[in-house]
Each structure stands twice: as C-alpha cells, then as structure tokens.
Design brief:
This protein is 5% helix and 38% strand. With 190 residues, the protein is mainly beta. The radius of gyration is 17 Å and the shape is elongated.
C-alpha cells in the first residue's frame, strides 16, 4: 500500500505513515511533512512527506512550522524513501541544517475529507483508549510506523511505561472521533 494520508486502519501489516507525537492545533492544521538532514551544499533538505503521494506536499502552497513560520517548497524530487527539496530562502548547507526535524503543517481545510475508515493521525492523538466494556486503558499519545504497519502508542491511565499496539481492525475495532475515544482489544501479552 505504501504511504497513506489520511491513514486507514490495516487488516495486515503494510509499511508507511506519518509519525505523530502530539498536536499543534488539532482543528486548524495537520502535519504533512518533516524536514530531515541537509542534502548537499546548496541548501537542499531531505523531506519526509506524510501525504499519500509524497510529491503531494508541493501542491498545498506555503506550509507552516509549529511556531507559525512560513515555508515554501520551490522544488522537490524523489530520492529513495524521501524527497529532496529546495526551500525558498534556504541557499546554503548551514541554513538547511538549522531546519532539521522541523515539522510542516497545512491548514486542515486544504486537505481532503477522510473516507469513513480513514483517519488523520492528528485526529487520533489524544483520544481515550478503552476496552469494549468501557474500562479505561489510557490515551493515544502518538502514532508511529517503523516499517511494519501503524502502531498506536498508548499512555496508560494508571501511569507507567507506554504500550505499543498495532493499529489494525482486530486490535482497534471501533473509533469514535466525535466521542474522542477508541475501543481497544489489547493482545493478551500487552
């Protein structure tokens, strides 16, 4: 399946998805890319796109950083599992290195409405995780993908170490964005 944005729950393990560690403004913006390391000496950067089509990040116009700075992608080209991008005003390696790990956001209204079984990661982070009987498990802290499918990082209600659960139909049989909760069937060993 490759990258997917918005993201569907998976019934089997498939690679690709944006990492989500938190919300900037859950109603106004959605993270669609993250700047990586500098590429070369002329100010280009590696860019991890979280859009279904990686080059789709170039179609939304100017993007914003978490602190509200405007970033314009002047050109982008595919390179292995990322893009190499030239950003407006970034003309040397030092300027490119200063942007490493900056997340880029787009106004939510510029994005397509997700299908019924698709979700923007920003909509999942912060939801209450409960068992089918209503017992609280915790809160969705993040959505990760390390190559074998999406994982929900759950911060336990009782405290302690977070747990990682596969974001599949079997493990997460119900998602209620409006009700701000997901129903989770944790594996026996979780």
């Amino acid at each position: 399946m490759g990258r997917s944005f918005p993201r569907k729950r998976e019934s089997s393990d498939r690679a690709g998805s944006p990492p989500s560690r938190g919300r900037v403004d859950e109603t106004a913006r959605v993270c669609i890319a993250q700047i990586g390391a500098a590429h070369g000496v002329r100010g280009e950067v590696r860019l991890k796109a979280f859009t279904q089509d990686p080059l789709g990040v170039t179609r939304y116009g100017p993007l914003e950083t978490e602190d509200g700075r405007r970033v314009e992608i002047e050109a982008a080209r595919p390179a292995k599992d990322m893009l190499v991008a030239r950003l407006k005003g970034v003309t040397d390696r030092n300027a490119a290195e200063a942007l490493k790990n900056i997340r880029l956001y787009v106004a939510r209204e510029k994005l397509p409405r997700p299908a019924d079984d698709e979700f923007y990661h920003a909509d999942l982070v912060g939801l209450a995780a409960v068992k089918a009987d209503g017992e609280a498990i915790g809160t969705v802290k993040a959505v990760h993908n390390f190559g074998a499918g999406d994982l929900l990082e759950i911060e336990p209600a009782a405290g302690g170490a977070t747990m990682m659960l596969p974001f599949t139909n079997a493990t997460v049989p119900a998602i209620d964005i409006a009700g701000r909760r997901i129903v989770v069937e944790p594996p026996v060993d979780a």
